Amino acid sequence: MELMGIIKGRRAVRKFADKEIPRENLVKILEAAIWAPSGSNTQSWEFILVTEKENIEKIKLISPGLFGNPKALVIVCINTERAKKGGREGIEMAKMDIAMASQNMMLMAHSLSIGSCPIVSFNKVALKELLDIPDSIDPKLILIFGYPEKWPRAPGRRPLKEVVHIEKFGEHIEE
To answer: Where would you tag: which of 36, 133, 149, 165 has the fewest CB atoms within 10 A of its CB?
Structure first.
């Protein structure tokens, strides 16, 4: 797929077909994550891959935003000890880093015809206990993955001339 097609085609998918994701595709998705930019190259991310149905079902019980039957989850976390290496802004940079890593994963998944959706509504305390996550690791996001039953339609986007300002706020770009 061509890059702009991948970017425009990625959708939040919540309904998945009953089809397993090959391990090599999950590895490609995770490898895309570690090639995201990282402020001061701290790479303060940690990723927990969950593929066992029983574990996914347990996580669903503590994640009100997690619908459907994904075949894989990636718990996206910040390693707060590594983030401290970024100085005063270390944690803030780490949030941006995991956002970019998450986008890389979702775009790679889409390029492999795998759907994804980011989930932020989950019980962090319960998740940490369930997955034995240490105190220094802060789960921020759950990404769900699976082959879509169907690809959702793209919602409208605000036009460039409305959101892009040239040189100063209020001077809009001409399309």
So the answer is: 165
Tell me if the pTM is above 0.90: yes
Residue 60 lies in a domain: yes
Of the chain, the end-to-end C-alpha distance in Å amounts to 26
Q: Quote the number of domains for the chain.
A: 1
**pLDDT per residue of the chain (175 residues) written in tens, 0 to 9:** 699 889 988 999 999 999 999 999 999 999 999 999 999 999 999 999 999 999 999 999 999 999 899 999 999 999 999 999 998 999 999 999 999 999 999 999 999 999 999 999 999 999 999 999 999 999 999 999 999 998 888 888 999 999 999 999 989 988 7
CA dist 158 and 144 (Å) reads 27
Task: Answer whether residue 121 is part of any domain.
Answer: yes
Q: Which domain holds residue 107?
A: 3-150
For residue 13, the domain's CATH number is: 3.40.109.10
